[in-house]
Amino acid sequence: MTIYDARRAAFFRPTLRLRLTLLNGILLVGAGLVLVVLAYILVDSALKPADQLQPGTRVVLEDGTEVDARQWQTELVDAAEWELLTRGSLALLLIGAVGVAGAYVVAGRALRPLQKVTTTAQRLSGETLDARINYDGADDEVSELAKTFDAMLDRIAEAFETQKRFVANASHELRTPLAVMRTEVDVTLDDPEADVEEYRRMATVVRDASMRANALVESLLLLARTEAQAGRRLGRKVGADLATGVAVAMSATGKEIKRLNLDVRTDLAPANVVGDPGLLDRLAGNLIENAVRYNHLGGRIWVRTGTDETLAWLVVGNTGFEVDPADVPVLFEPFRRGGRERTGARGSGLGLSIVRAVCDAHGGGVSAVALEGGGLEVTVSLPAAAITPLLSGTAAVPIVAERPAA
C-alpha cells in the first residue's frame, strides 16, 4: 500500500496552530499598542493647566521650592509620559505573552479534531476502515468537518465491502463452469472405455459450461460499461422506443415461453425516450428474460409501456415463486436471486443490477413490488423524449408492500 505523507520535510513548519497563534498575538499586541499611543496623546493634551496662567506665574512645591509654572508643567508632563510608556510597554509585553500562550493553547484544543482526522486517515487501509473520529465537542465548524469525515469513511467502507462481495461472487460464478468443464474432461480422459458418444456428451457439457462462462463475462462487461456511464453523458443519445425493445425480447424468448406454456399479455403503447438503444434493448431483454426464467409452468407474464409529458415507463410482471418484500431491494444487487441459492440456479444474478445501472445512466429509476401468491412486478421510469433528459439519476429501489398479482 502506498502511503502519502503530507507533512513537509522541514525543521520548522508554519502549522495552522502556529499561524493562528501569531495572528492572535499580532492583533492583541497591535490593539494594546494603539491603546498606549492613545493614552500617550490624551496625557500630553490633558496635563497642561499652566497654559491658562499668566506668564511668569510661579508655584510653590511641597518642599517649599518655587518654580515657574510652565517649567513645572513641562516636567510633570514629561514624567507622566515616561511613566506611561515604560509601564504601558511592560504591561503590553506581559499581556502579549499571556495572550500568545493562551491563543496557542486554545488553538491547539480547537484544532485537536483536525489532528485526529490526520491520525485516523494515516491509520486507514483497505483492511482497517473501522476507525472513526467520533467528535463529541461543541457543535461548530470543526464538529461538522469531523462528522463529514466519519460519513465519508462510512461510504468508503461500504464501497469496499460491496467491491469485495462483488469480486467474491464473480469468482464463484466463474469458478463453477470452469470446474464443470475440467471435471468432465478429466473424467472422460480417465475412462479407457470412453467411446465417441461419451466424448460427444463431454463436448456438449463443456460447450454449455463455456457458454455460461461467456455469458457471465459479457454481463460483467455490460454492467461495468453501464455503471461507468451513470451520472455522466451517455456514449450514444438517440431516439428509442421501449416498446420496440420489448418486442425484440419477446421474440428472443418465444421458444421458452411456449415450452413453459406461459400466458403473455401485452399493452405496448409508444414509450419514446432518448438514450443508448443497445442499453435500452438490454434493459427490456433482462426484464423479459427474468420474467420467463423465474416463472412456473402455465404461469403469466404481463408487459405494459406508455408515456406522458415527462416520463416513459415499462412495466414487466410475472407469476412465480414468492419473494419477501424485504428482499426486493437486494434483487438489484449483483449475483442476488431473491433467496435462491446460486448453485444450480439459472442465470448469473446480474439481470436486475444491469437494469438498475441502465436506468441510472439514463437519469431514470426502477422499482419492484413483490406480489401476493408469488411473482414480481418491475417498473422502469425514464425521462420522456419530449423533455431534456437528465444527465444523472438515482435508480431508487424502494421497499414496497405486497399487492395482489395482476
Automatic annotation (TrEMBL):
It is found in: Cell membrane. PROSITE patterns: HAMP, HIS_KIN. It catalyses: ATP + protein L-histidine = ADP + protein N-phospho-L-histidine. One of its GO terms (molecular function) is kinase activity. CDD domains: HAMP, HATPase, HisKA. SMART domains: HAMP (SM00304), HATPase_c (SM00387), HisKA (SM00388). The keyword Coiled coil does not apply. The chain crosses the membrane at residues 21-43, 90-107. Its main location: membrane. Its EC number is 2.7.13.3. Residues 108-161 form the HAMP domain. It comes from the Bacteria. Residues 169-386 form the Histidine kinase domain. Keywords: Kinase, Membrane, Phosphoprotein, Transferase, Transmembrane, Transmembrane helix, Two-component regulatory system. PANTHER family: SENSOR HISTIDINE KINASE TRCS (PTHR45436:SF5), SENSOR HISTIDINE KINASE YKOH (PTHR45436). This is histidine kinase. It comes from Dactylosporangium fulvum.
